[in-house]
Design brief:
The chain has 8 helices and 7 strands, in the order E-H-E-H-E-H-E-H-E-H-E-H-H-E-H. The chain is an alpha/beta fold. The chain has one domain: Rossmann fold, CATH 3.40.50. Helix 1 links the parallel strand 1 and strand 2. Helix 1 runs parallel beside helix 2. The protein is globular.
Length: 193
Amino acid sequence: MKRVCIFCGSSPGSDPAYAAAARELASALARAGIDLVYGGARCGLMGIVADAALESGGRVIGVLPRALKEKELAHERLTELHLVDTMHERKALMADLSDAFVALPGGFGTLDEFCEILTWAQLGIHSKPCGLLNTSGFYSGFLTQVQNAIAGGLTRPQHAALIRVAETPAQLIERLREPVAEVLPKWMEDPGR
């Protein structure tokens, strides 16, 4: 695992634990020699993870749509900044650059990015680890919804197991290092069902 992509909010959020966990995770990745890939902005949790990784001697690669750079949101001290034309290009490049994915607290954009990369894993497009840092129970409601989808016969348990959940950054890094289990793509017949 050489590069981890972090999806997170462009706002810091109302709970100081979000920023603390973001700093701790980014610093730990940098100390382990793991590069950070993220959305390229200087604001909110995005800026916090970039700053923490850089301050810990890490490499930080940002991917930002040109329209957001024009709004002066680009982080100016990154190791690399890739400018793209669309959000779709942003997500595709972030996926190509990364060996694993983590979602920290965030809003619609964070959920969109994480759910898309998780769907790609479910469809067999990639076999990279996908993790949630459940700081202060932020993702507990989302995880309940995943269980609702299983109970409703809309998601298979093996696909829900693609989500590696941890309460602390150290636990999450260890979970990302676990081997990725091979899963049947969504459309394949599940012999255990």
